[in-house]
Write a structure and sequence with these properties.
Layout lengths: L1 E6 L15 E6 L2 E5 L6 H8 L9 E3 L5 H4 L2 H7 L5 E3 L7 E5 L2 E4 L12 E3 L3 E5 L2 E5 L14 E5 L2 E4 L6 E7 L2 E5 L7 H12 L5 E4 L4 E2 L4 E2 L2 H12 L5 E4 L5 H11 L3 E3 L5 E3 L1
Parallel strand pairs: 3-4, 4-5, 5-8, 14-15, 15-18, 18-19
Antiparallel strand pairs: 1-2, 1-20, 2-3, 6-7, 6-11, 9-10, 10-13, 11-12, 13-14, 16-17
Length: 274
């Protein structure tokens, strides 16, 4: 299994674009997978520079309905005319973020839902060939305050987002499981807990944003909240974590104080094999 960050908040090379967004290219189980598309066209430009052929993607996954993960969907559809895109139907509903001075629309282009390219997924969905998806993660523990600024529209009113539009990708290869999350708005440890319920073990690899930063304010969660999460993740002795995007560099540095080499940061252009 090989995972490459096509675009992320940071970059490993000045030749690659960076943005507040996320897109991953995954090679596993004999398939080529695109996980999210970032803000716009940068994922595609970076893919070309990294030698990733988006025309030959076998399928794509949209982790949730926010613009920084689905903003490049139209570009992908233009490049790749056949591959299915797995998404939650609710991903195309209106979504917002409460900023200090405004209500900001952070959803994706709803008109794309009728493009004929999307396969709308269930709460749990087996994609075959070692790939599956799950969503609707229960709040075993309260979500971090960094997720509580996210809103959805219900019956004409904006309410706190339940993240029913968020889904997580699971890859089972060579007897090991990898868990890929987009922003983990539901709480990364809640997501891992749900993974355990479904698959009966810990994942050997967890990749994605952990949403430990409040993007609207540009600051991390309090140290005590990050330390509490680090303690839970550190107890998973056989799991390796690669995090990025909405985790934030400050929170990553705090996590790595406890987890050491168990956690790594994945910048745009970085690749690793598992």
């Amino acid at each position: 299994m090989k995972i490459t960050a096509l675009v992320e908040n940071t970059t490993c090379s000045d030749e690659l674009a960076k943005e507040h967004g996320l897109s991953l290219y995954i090679e596993a189980c004999g398939k080529r997978v695109l996980f999210d598309t970032g803000l716009g066209d940068n994922f595609a430009a970076n893919a070309e520079k990294l030698g990733v052929d988006l025309e030959n993607i076998d399928f794509a996954v949209l982790s949730h309905g926010h613009y920084d993960h689905g903003g490049g969907l139209a570009r992908f559809i233009a490049i790749n005319g056949t591959s299915p895109i797995y998404a939650r139907e609710l991903a195309f509903e209106p979504h917002y973020s409460q900023r200090p001075d405004e209500l900001f629309y952070n959803g994706i282009d709803a008109s794309l839902a009728s493009s004929g390219r999307f396969v709308f997924t269930n709460r749990e969905q087996d994609l075959g060939g070692g790939f599956s998806l799950f969503s609707e993660v229960p709040a075993y523990e309260p979500v971090f305050s960094s997720s509580r600024t996210q809103l959805e529209m219900v019956d004409g009113k904006t309410v706190q987002d339940r993240f029913l539009h968020e889904q997580n990708l699971v890859i089972h290869e060579d007897g090991k499981y990898a868990l890929i999350a987009g922003c983990a708005h539901s709480g990364i440890y809640n997501i891992i807990t749900r993974f355990r319920e479904i698959y009966g073990c810990d994942p050997g690899l967890v990749v994605g944003g952990f949403h430990l930063m409040i993007p609207n304010l540009g600051k991390s969660l309090p140290d005590e909240e990050i330390d509490a999460l680090a303690g839970k993740l550190g107890a998973m002795k056989n799991t390796k974590f690669y995090t990025c995007h909405c985790t934030g560099k400050q929170a990553f540095e705090r996590l790595s104080m406890s987890l050491g080499a168990q956690v790594s940061y994945l910048s745009g252009g970085d690749s690793f094999e598992f």
